[in-house]
Description:
- It is a single chain.
- The protein has helices at residues 3-9, 18-26, 46-60, 73-76, 91-105, 120-123, 128-135, 140-144, 147-154, 161-177, 189-198, 237-245, 252-259, 264-270, 276-292, 294-309, 330-339, 342-350, and strands spanning 12-16, 32-37, 64-69, 114-118, 181-185, 208-212, 319-322, 354-356, 359-360, 374-378, 382-388.
- It has 18 helices and eleven strands.
- The chain has three domains: 3-212, HUPs (Rossmann fold), CATH 3.40.50.620; 235-309, Tyrosyl-Transfer RNA Synthetase, CATH 1.10.240; 319-388, Structural Genomics Hypothetical 15.5 Kd Protein In mrcA-pckA Intergenic Region, Chain A (Roll).
- The protein is α/β, with parallel strands linked by helices.
- The radius of gyration is 25 Å and the shape is elongated.
- The chain binds one RNA strand of 83 nucleotides through helix 12, helix 15, helix 16 and helix 18.
Amino acid sequence: MNPIEELLTRGVEEVIDKAHLESLLKSKKKLRIKLGIDPTSPNIHIGRAVALWKLRAFQELGHQVIFIVGDFTGLIGDTADKDSERPMLSEVEIKTNLRTYFKQAFKILDPKKTETHYNSKWLKKLGFLEIGKMANLFGLHEFESRENIAKRMKAGKRVSLRELLYPIMQGYDSVAIKADVELGGTDQRFNFLAGRTIQPAYGQQGQDIITLQLMEGTDGRKMSSSWGNVINITDEPNDMFGKVMSITDELIKKYFVLATRVDITEIDEIMKLPNPRDQKIILAEKLTGLYHGDKKAAGAKEAFISQFSKGELPEDIEIKFLPSGFIPTVSVTTSFLVGISKSEAKRLMDQGGLKIDSKVVKEDKIIEDIEKEHLLQAGKRRFFKFKRK
RNA sequence: GGGCAGGUGGUAGAGCGGUCAAUUACACCUGACUGUAAAUCAGGCGCCUUUCGGCUACAUAGGUUCGAAUCCUAUCCUGCCCA
């Protein structure tokens, strides 16, 4: 597949206007590709990284990436991908978030081919006259029929006026930086179209739009930090590997296409493997390698196989010291080590999920001999060593 | 400004005077099984207690009652309708 074709199809939901963008790409013109960054959550998970990888592909073709930091829009709050209103952010919060964000984003992107702008720079200056002019380009019904707005209204939830301003602001960003292309998740479609509508009013060609497929989280629901089903690009190799292994089988191909850079034809080959486990292991290794390098990915793979396929103990088990005066009953010790309540520790015991020195412990008693090191296993994933300090 | 409806556990959403620590679904945890930390099946899922039981919790603060998530009052928040 040639690079341009891959650029316009891989993980892509929709391209507006495809023919136009295709000819632009072939024209050798250096394009300005816009990505809005929402500074509400600084951690980049592999779902959000999809857009960044797409930008990287643009960079590899010689185009310019423009980051728009929504420091101003962030203050207002977007609704595109939320079912409820977003909270307003303080300026301090935004700044700290951004520092973290960039550190992660430049693992993927080439900083030399990336420029960054803060949209407060131009949005602050807009007066009512200007805003009114832009607002006039839209009808209320357009907002009303937006899926997530409609859903909320139907459910009797509040939609504030402030939220209606958001697409206008984002659209004006495109004007300010003269964007040729804007991309992001399908949930952003409406906002992108706003740019396409507003730009011509300022004598610019309306931007082309690429919307990307959304990626489900490890549990199959939408990937979202508040669900705890995300894989962050800063996750430790073993953790990342394990999280990938826990995705449901149906998601394997999508993860390959969206989250890795494995060649499409190669993906098709991998998908022919009869055992989904093997597909998933390759996926986990490729994905981990993308962020941690092949060597660490191979290590994570080994650790996973020995721990979960063969049931061996992991290599590095954290040692915790019990304070003196500590009464080492099984339940209290477990709750101390694992960080769960005593009731929960007891439940674990009842369910046969608790092992001390590899033996299942079902009744609460004092652990003998805690001057020596003991091993505690809570379920299949939590391991601790402990001894008296 | 007026009228009406509502605020329940991580989420959605039942319950509308005792049998409610609260149905159910999802998420989560544990076990079994398996080719997988998938799927499926079973159990669990506030805190404390060996058991009995106790404590805290259904927006907040009071009140009625032998007894309140459930009734009343006030407050805060949200939605809808009218102006």
